[in-house]
Amino acid sequence: MTFRGKDIKYVDGGQVMAKKGCWSLLKGGLTVDFSVHVNILFQSTDLAAAEILVENVRLQRFNKTQWRLKQDQVIEKGRKVRFQVSFQNKSVAKGSLISLKQIKPSFLLGCAMNYKILESDS
Fold it and tell me: Tell me, what's the pLDDT at 28?
């Protein structure tokens, strides 16, 4: 999803790569300093018909002070990340070192999805 302003300024709002039989959720926080209509482009590599359902679309305005306050509140929360590295036979590889390298600037590290949202029927 890309926002485009009158001066042809583009702001990437995120992207999702879905697989057949799966559903995806695009959620995040971004700021744009202009009002604009949003176009959402759906692409498919398969020529077969795709079923696309869009629910609960919500955009909320914040001024810069409100947005910064919300950022500060989120930063102050404890962030818990849990990785479990295992071998192919599912035995745990204890003491593993994990490093992440961001290779795509539009992929927002730190914007994780809570498992309760993923498992929700609604």
Answer: 58
3-state SS class at 67: helix
Domain that holds residue 4: 1-122
HSE (side-chain half, CA atoms, 13 Å) at 92: 4
The string of pLDDT tens digits covering residues 21-71 is 676 666 655 666 666 666 666 666 665 666 777 666 666 777 778 877 877
Q: Are 102 and 115 in contact (CB under 8 A)?
A: no
3-state secondary structure of 51: coil
Distance CA 18, CA 11 (A): 22
Number of domains in the chain: 1
d(CA 25, CA 107): 14
